[in-house]
Each structure stands twice: as C-alpha cells, then as structure tokens.
Amino acid sequence: MKIILSGLIMIILSSSLIACNSNSAESSAETMIDTTNKSVADFEKAILKEGSQLLDVRSMEEYQSGHIKNALLADWSNSDEFMYRVQSLDKSKPVYAYCFSGARSSKATAWLREKGFVAYNLDGGIAAWKRERKPLEGSINVKQTSMQEYQSLIPSDKIVLVDISASWCPPCKKMEPVVDSLSRTSGVSFALVKIDGGEQNTIVQELKVNAFPTFIIYKNGKEYWRRSGIVAAEELTKQLN
Questions:
Q1: Active-site residue among 74, 112, 128, 169?
Q2: pLDDT digits (tens, 9 = 90+) for 41-89
Q3: Which of 47, 71, 110, 214 could bridge 228 with an S-S bond, Cβ 3.0-4.6 Å?
Q4: Catalytic residue among 161, 172, 204, 207
C-alpha cells in the first residue's frame, strides 16, 4: 500500500512540475512578443498624444514626396546625419518612427532603444499608412528666394541674425525657443531673418549651408559670424554684441 501511495505521489509531483514548466514557457513566450511594432491604427492614436515625437527616417526626397504631419526627419541611411539629429530628441518622451515599408524604421527603433529611448515602429511603414488612406503632407511648389532678394533683407545699418532652419529638423526645433527669446533677453537690438531651409533650396546652396540650423550674423551688411547646430544663447548674445 505504501508503495502504491508513493507512486501516486510521484506521478502527481511530476504532473505539477510539467504544468509549471509549461506555464513558465508560456510566460516566457509572452514576454518575447515584439511590442515595438504598432499597427497603423495604434500608431495613429499614439502620435496624437501630447508629448509624442514622430520621426521619419527616410531620405529628404522621400519625405518631400509625402510625410505624416509634424514628422521630424533623420535619414537612417546617412548615419552621421541620423545621429546628429536624434541627439535633439527627448529621451523622456516616446519616439514613433516610420519609413516606406518598415525595414529601416525597425532598425532605427532598435538603435534608439539601445540608446535609452522608448521607441516604436510603424508596422508596414508609409505603404501601410497609404493603404489605410491616412493623410499625408507634401512639399508645395514654393517660390525660391534669389540671392538679390536675400541681400535686400540684410540692411547695412543694423545687426542681422539669419536663422536658416527646417520644420522637420530636430535641432532646429530645439533652438526655436532660444532664438525667439533673444530679442527679449539679450539687450541687443538686431533684426531677425528666418529662412525655411527645407523649402528654399536655392538660397541654401548659394550660401553653402550644409546643416540645419545654421545661424549667420551680419554687421554693416557683411557676414561677421556663422555657426551650425545647437548654439548656446550666451554664445549668440556674445556674437550679436
């Protein structure tokens, strides 16, 4: 009788262990499910939330052919450009990335997560977005500013700060409040000229601007100082004096 009971106990224990192992395997499988990819519907809901950061990782040409509203641009295929631009993203806020089909943005999302960002990828990319007939914005045919027209904006009797930025450029977004507050806090009288570098390709090439934002200060009608990228307010104030 004891032998029979012992055998039954062993069978029950073995069954319990198998069940536990099975549940453990299921839990592990659930934790391994990829949660970084979001469907079009979920992606759209997420980017509408306050604090979300939307990132297009395609090329400039692709971006201009049609992009999601309020998307910033950082070309994943250009590693130097990508790393430079994402430095201005806020790690405390989620990033939602997309490309054409989801391949590049999936890699970009993995990279961002490795760097400490909370990042998600649009499953299927813009191609899937279009299939769902979701809205896109594209560049319109903007009249290009000539060099003569540009120079007319630079009076010789004033200090002029030219801000060449783009709406899709993360560092430009970061510099916006800095530039806007200069006239109120610097104590220096100057004229501010803003150029949309994302649209004004002609003048950007004429001025040999290679990165956004680029700041140029003119004194007596001539270029006095130039700097690209993030610039401290103190540095701008010093150069404007």
A1: 169
A2: 999 999 999 999 999 999 998 998 899 999 999 999 999 999 999 999 9
A3: 214
A4: 172
What the chain holds in terms of domains, given with CATH numbers, is 37-131 (3.40.250.10), 147-240 (3.40.30.10)
Active site residue 172: yes
pLDDT at 234 over 50: yes
Spatial distance between the Cα atoms of 113 and 95, rounded to a whole number of angstroms: 10
Using an 8 Å Cβ cutoff, are 118 and 92 in contact? no
Q: What is the pLDDT of residue 11?
A: 40
Question: Which whole number is the average pLDDT over 174-196?
Answer: 89
Extract long-range pairs of 86-92: CB within 8 Å, 24+ residues apart. 86/55, 86/112, 86/170, 87/170, 87/171, 88/170, 88/171, 88/173, 88/174, 88/230, 89/53, 89/55, 89/117, 89/170, 90/53, 91/116, 91/117, 91/118
